[in-house]
Design brief:
This protein has 498 residues and is α/β, with parallel strands linked by helices. The protein has helices at 17-23, 44-48, 52-63, 69-79, 112-116, 119-127, 144-152, 171-178, 194-206, 208-216, 229-248, 268-278, 295-302, 327-334, 339-351, 359-366, 376-390, 396-408, 410-415, 431-437, 447-458, 464-467, 485-497, and strands spanning 4-7, 10-16, 32-33, 92-95, 98-102, 133-139, 158-165, 185-190, 219-222, 258-263, 283-290, 304-306, 354-356, 369-373, 418-423, 479-480. The structure holds pyridoxal-5'-phosphate (PLP). Pyridoxal-5'-phosphate (PLP) binds at residues 110-112, 143, 226, 263-269, 318-319, 397, 424-425.
Length: 498
């Protein structure tokens, strides 16, 4: 059976996986979903005996059915090669009474690489033979931007425009983006928050006049955010692969249920865990860990999603998000695929800033998802205790998850043989905050001095791509307002595709 995709807000027309990847977002503003999810299961016995690459093949060929097996193989070879600092790609390591799933071994030192090393290759295969340029337009809360730039740079026929919120990413994250080389890249800071930038990017995608204008120049827009199904699907792989690693280590037996705790912003990573469960992985609970921007904790506790609240800048900036786009997909599946309901809820969110789901729908979500949040003080304390007690250095996003796991899940320690905490970034991306959390930060140290001090104090080694940043020239200096983003994109299209 061919796996087709349609919008969360209407099932009237369907597209193939390749078309869904290239489009990014459905024409009505909804997100692409497949009704094949729930009808298919992966072979767990087989997966427990194979490596990351083979499991990636099983996952991708199941959900991206119009890619040939050869195309998927080529994508996997290219995406998960020597640019990773470990052949295991996503190793699982012990941490106290649970496990750490390390997702930061790729070229930009954050988990976004797992999908964004793959996505450009999925684009290239989908566009093969078609004479059309695609401009990737991406809003980033800090890590997606660099991972997208690195993945899409210098690929013929593709361009990438990245918008990050000015002053709301770490210094290292900003430098990763502003020093990006490549003939097809454009980077701009936006005055405002990630939510402002993401809202405007979604509006740009839905702007039919702009689409028409670009079409006459043979150009289309698409997304590298986790609203793109081509970003979510590759993330399913590491849930299965982590399980396989635990089986091989003898930590669990085949069939045992495990729970995952996921530091969450746009709800993409944890949704991939839900997809893994739907594909037959024995997942008990998925724990949604938030920082002080705890809109998802409130939603899972009360059934009301309310974005009318003050934005808080935290030490885990990649999770400073109030509108978690991928929740829309969970609502679709948890409501028995009620597209009318989803369209209604999303209209309420847009126009009134709030929606409430029925008790029945909330119960279904709570049957799988736990939740909790950590303040910056708790996050810093977790970084420090993890270092002092376990001698493991974790980044602030991972610390949010570990703190929430220890707090909300004591009952799971008896119920599950293994609990897995997703570790989403290298601590060196946040050198200054991590050093401060360890109580080792003197006044007035710049980020590279902090990086050196962190290495010296802990005896750990920063990723070479991060320590080298200090020598790179700053190329992208632009700053714009939300209403100037469209102009920036059209200018980038003319420059890159002319
Ligand atoms: C993006 C990101 C997250 C949040 O992931 P979502 O898929 O947006 O929920 C967590 N940690 C880090 C380091 C990230 O870059």
């Amino acid at each position: 059976m061919d796996v087709q995709y349609h919008s969360t807000r209407s099932s009237l027309s369907s597209v193939s996986a390749k078309q869904a990847v290239v489009s990014g977002i459905a024409p009505d503003g909804g997100l692409f979903v497949s009704d094949a999810l729930g009808t298919k299961a992966l072979d767990l016995t087989r997966i427990s005996g194979q490596d990351f690459h083979a499991t990636a093949h099983d996952v991708l060929s199941t959900l991206l059915a119009d890619y040939t097996s050869e195309e998927i193989d080529e994508c996997i070879q290219g995406a998960y090669g020597p640019q990773w600092d470990t052949p295991a790609i996503t190793p699982v390591t012990p941490l106290g009474n649970h496990w750490l799933l390390e997702l930061f071994h790729g070229p930009t030192s954050a988990f976004k690489d797992i999908a964004l090393q793959m996505l450009p290759r999925l684009f290239t295969k989908a566009l093969a033979g078609r004479k059309r340029n695609v401009m990737i337009v991406t809003a980033t809360s800090g890590d997606t931007g660099k991972a997208a730039l690195e993945g899409f740079k210098d690929i013929p026929g593709l361009g990438v425009s990245v918008f990050y919120p000015e002053g709301k990413v770490s210094d290292i994250q900003r430098l990763q983006m502003t020093t990006q080389t490549g003939s097809n890249v454009a980077v701009c800071a936006v005055r405002g928050t990630f939510d402002n930038a993401q809202t405007e990017v979604k509006r740009i995608f839905a702007d039919s006049e702009l689409a028409e204008h670009l079409r006459s120049a043979n150009t289309a827009l698409s997304s590298a955010n986790s609203i793109n199904i081509g970003r979510l699907v590759p993330q399913i792989t590491y849930y299965f692969d982590a399980y396989a690693q635990l089986v091989r280590r003898g930590a669990i037996s085949l069939g045992d249920r495990v729970s995952f705790c996921v530091p969450t912003g746009n709800f993409g990573d944890v949704l991939a865990g839900y997809f893994a469960k739907t594909l037959g992985l024995p997942v008990d609970r998925l724990i949604v860990a938030s920082n002080a921007n705890k809109v998802l904790t409130d939603f899972i506790q009360t059934g009301t999603y309310d974005r009318r609240r003050a934005f808080k800048k935290t030490m885990s900036p990649s999770m400073d998000i109030i509108v978690s786009s991928n929740l829309e997909r969970l609502l679709y599946y948890a409501s028995d695929k009620d597209t009318n309901l989803i369209a209604f809820l999303m209209r309420n969110l847009r126009e009134k800033g709030v929606y409430t789901v029925s008790a029945q729908l909330l119960d279904r979500i709570r049957a799988i998802f736990d939740c909790g949040f950590a303040t910056d003080a708790e996050t810093a304390a977790t970084i420090r205790s993890t270092w002092e007690e376990e001698h493991v250095l974790i980044d602030p996003h991972t610390a949010v998850a570990r703190c929430v796991l220890e707090r909300v899940a004591p009952h799971l320690f008896t119920r599950n043989k293994a609990l897995v905490c997703l570790s989403t970034a290298s601590p060196y991306k946040f050198s200054s905050d991590v050093l401060a959390a360890l109580g080792r930060k003197p006044e007035n140290l710049d980020d590279f001095a902090c990086m050196d001090a962190l290495a010296e104090y802990t005896g750990t080694v920063p990723p070479i791509t991060l320590s080298r940043l200090r020598d790179n020239a700053i190329i992208h200096t632009g700053v714009c307002d939300q209403n100037q983003m469209e102009r920036f994109v059209t200018t980038a299209c003319s420059r890159i595709f002319s």
